[in-house]
Design brief:
Oligomer: single chain
CATH architecture: Roll
Low-confidence stretches: 1-20
Number of helices: 5
Radius of gyration: 19 Å
Shape: globular
Order of helices and strands: HHEEEEHEEHHEE
Length: about 190
């Protein structure tokens, strides 16, 4: 059995760090510049929307396509527009929640003022829906989608539908270094028993 020495571990760490640094330096921009671009792109989208800067008391959200986008946290990482509150029960921690989504790159929107073509699994009902266990970030099935995808289910019921604007750090974990903000259109479902 081969022993792993300290020099080998340092080499692996340096390689991982260099890879992450390379990914984060998209188009020769610093990470700080990418974060600024992300903020500008989100603001460009929200400038054409009605925005409410706090979550309403008792989760009494306005509902529908003309409803405002609510700022869901103090830092403005997540904005949510409720299209349908859902029906039935509200999931509790560790409940399985299925979801289908289409997402739109807000960087592309800022450059054209129209939503680009979206990607996701909502247009193909033959594909498997994605799922998470609410607020259980110990398992990859939940943590890989980030906190922002799960957030609406702490306020809404199964069968809810939302539009949600997410900064990269609240979206898919595998894409955080790309610093790309997205608008998601998400529908949530209870698993069939």
């Amino acid at each position: 059995m081969k022993k792993i020495n300290g020099r080998m571990i340092l080499g692996v760490i340096a390689t991982v760090f260099a890879s992450v640094s390379f990914i984060a330096c998209n188009d020769s921009k610093s990470y700080s510049e990418l974060l600024n671009d992300e903020k500008v792109n989100i603001n460009a989208f929200l400038a054409n929307q009605r925005v409410v800067n706090e979550v309403p008391a008792d989760s009494a959200f306005e509902i529908g396509p003309d409803a405002p986008f609510y700022r869901m946290d103090e830092e403005g990482n997540v904005y949510m527009q409720v299209l349908d509150r859902g029906d039935g029960e509200r999931p509790v921690d560790d409940d399985v929640v299925y979801f289908r989504y289409i997402r739109y790159d807000l960087g592309d929107y800022a450059n054209s003022d129209t939503l680009p073509n979206g990607g996701g699994n909502a247009n193909n009902m033959e594909s498997e829906p994605t799922w998470f266990r609410l607020n259980n970030y110990r398992i990859t099935a939940s943590s890989q989608y980030g906190m922002g995808i799960q957030l609406p289910m702490t306020y809404l019921n199964y069968n809810a539908k939302v539009n949600i604007v997410l900064k990269s750090q609240y979206g898919f974990v595998s894409e955080i270094a790309l610093v790309t903000p997205f608008l998601y259109n998400i529908s949530y479902y209870k698993p069939a028993v």
